[in-house]
Design brief:
The chain is an alpha+beta fold. The protein contains 9 helices and 10 strands.
Length: 241
Amino acid sequence: MENENMIPLSPNDIFRFSCSKDVPCFNECCRDLNQFLTPYDILRLKNGLGISSDVFLERYTRQHTGPETGLPVVTFKMDEASELKCPFVAAEGCGVYEDRPSSCRTYPLFRVVSRSRETGKMTEQHIMLKEPHCKGFEHGELRSVRQWIKDQGIGIYNEMNDLLMEIIAMKNRIPGPMDIKSRHAFHLACYDLDAFRKQIFEKGMLKDSDAAPDFLEKAETDDTALLKLSLEWLKRSLFSV
């Protein structure tokens, strides 16, 4: 990756970074955004706000179609009157910091994941994005990539996002756009998790499923378990695996 602002790092490599009110560019990275949200991002945000997934999607997001995958993509609905600012940022900082999206959590790193077609094994690489305007690299303590991932609570985000990447990889092997029914299934399973729960437990959508009863019981109240179930259902529904 030939770019002086993009530096590949191994898990034990050390870097300095901090984002706080003490940094001159504080909040600058929270505007002029095209912020994509993963299913687990939405799960955490809507639960942190104490609202249902459909209310969160209506109030805070827009849906697009991914130009490469043809899959439904959800982004934050930015405030056009204030330089496309994130809907949750204020002068004092992020209003949803404990449940901030994975891309915000990982910054200034980003994670590149690849899967071997022969073995199915996934490998990851972290890249540090050292943007010239960002002064965070002049502040904070020295930490390894491994420690940064732990400190920022990124592990569960990566785990859940990898389940989505598996579905995207399957779709990429099938050329052409998705039909309306498949797009609806994708949106339901990935983004509108509370509606998916109703389909299961109130309308019996999975009554003939071979899902383990104890896992179904857990998914009734645990959103992380429910998302795992929904992504597995989506994989079987779209690709018969």
